[in-house]
Amino acid sequence: MIKGREKTLARISTIVQVALSLGCYWFVAWATNNYMRPVEIAAHDTNIVYLMIIAIWYTLIKEFNLGKMLRVKTYSELFAEYFAMVFISSGLLYLGSLFLTDTVPVLILALFACLNMAVLFSFRMLSYTIFKKIRGKGYNTRNVLIVADDESYLHFIDRMLFIRDWGYRVWAIMSDGKHIKNKYDSHVRVLHEHFQLNEIIDANVVDEVIYCKGKFNNDEVRALIYACSEVGVTFRVYSELLSVVSMRSHLTYFKELPFLTFANNTKNYFALKVKEILDFVFSFFIVVLISPVLLGIAIAIKIEDGGSIFFKQERVGLNGRLFKCLKFRTMVENAEALRVKLENMNEQSGPVFKIKNDPRVTRVGRFLRKTSLDELPQFFNVLKGEMSIVGPRPPIPSEVQQYQRWQRRRLSMKPGITCIWQVSGRNNIPFDEWMRLDMMYIDTWSLKLDLMLFLSTIKVVLTGDGQ
Question: What keywords would UniProt list here (predicted)?
Answer without folding.
Answer: Membrane, Transferase, Transmembrane, Transmembrane helix
